[in-house]
Specification:
Layout: E1 8-16, E2 20-21, E3 26-34, E4 42-49, E5 59-66, E6 72-80, H1 90-93, E7 95-105, E8 108-121, H2 124-128, E9 139-143, E10 149-152, E11 198-200
Antiparallel strand pairs: 1-3, 2-9, 3-6, 4-5, 4-7, 7-8, 8-9, 8-10, 10-11
Length: about 220
């Protein structure tokens, strides 16, 4: 997932307790690295796509602010309650849908990880004769964790203000310096956000994974 262009590199997302019952919490272990200190928190969100027909059925399962964000590596488990099935179209509860994990900085999304989700009955009798009203307590949820779809969006993070030690910059500490002289600093942050994003797979590859604009 490292593209060398962002202050934050998401290095791994692992789906925990999967497959599981539909009514069980969703759990994702997220690992990322911060290349330099940031002034504000990161916001992580998990969104359940309730229907391919309309976004009004999408459910924001949870959002969490993570900070302070200083240079280093991080790992945490993002656990959320399952979607409220009473707010989902009856015909879309059983079958295939999508779940989206996103991360934003200062309200600007810079990464989105999408997964197909298959909700089905394990009981063969229920498969052959499904009830008119879905038996949610009998449904199993399977997130296709090996086929994620990753979309990255260029945004403007804070400008790093690193200064090299004098010995690295080739400056003799014993010599007087000109007023206002800087031994050297690293380049600033990437240019402002551009429309569109870059989509790629994890190391496992996509092999037909979810496209963000794909009809389900």
């Amino acid at each position: 997932l490292n593209d060398g262009m962002s202050a934050i590199n998401v290095t791994s997302v692992t789906v925990l307790d999967n497959p599981s019952m539909f009514s069980n919490p969703l759990q994702f272990e997220i690992q990322y690295e911060c290349l330099y200190d940031l002034n504000d928190d990161l916001e992580w969100k998990l969104i359940y796509v309730g229907s391919a027909e309309s976004e009004r059925y999408d459910q924001l399962l949870d959002s969490v602010l993570v900070g302070p964000v200083v240079r280093g590596s991080y790992r945490f488990v993002f656990q959320v309650d399952p979607p409220d099935h009473t707010k989902l179209p009856v015909d879309d509860i059983v079958g295939v849908t999508v779940i989206l994990l996103t991360c934003s900085y200062r309200g600007k999304e810079f990464i989105r990880v999408g997964y197909y989700v298959n909700n089905e009955y394990i009981d063969e009798d229920l498969r052959e004769n499904p009830p008119s009203s879905p038996a949610v307590h009998r449904l199993h949820r399977n997130i296709l964790a090996d086929k994620p779809r990753v979309t990255k969006f260029p945004i403007e993070f804070d400008t790093p203000t690193f200064v090299q030690p004098m010995w690295q910059a080739g400056v003799d500490p014993g010599m007087p310096q000109m007023p206002g002289a800087m031994p050297g600093a690293m380049p600033g942050a990437m240019p402002g956000a551009q429309p569109g994003g870059v989509t790629q797979g994890f190391d496992t590859g996509l092999n037909g994974g979810l496209a963000m604009d794909m009809a389900i």
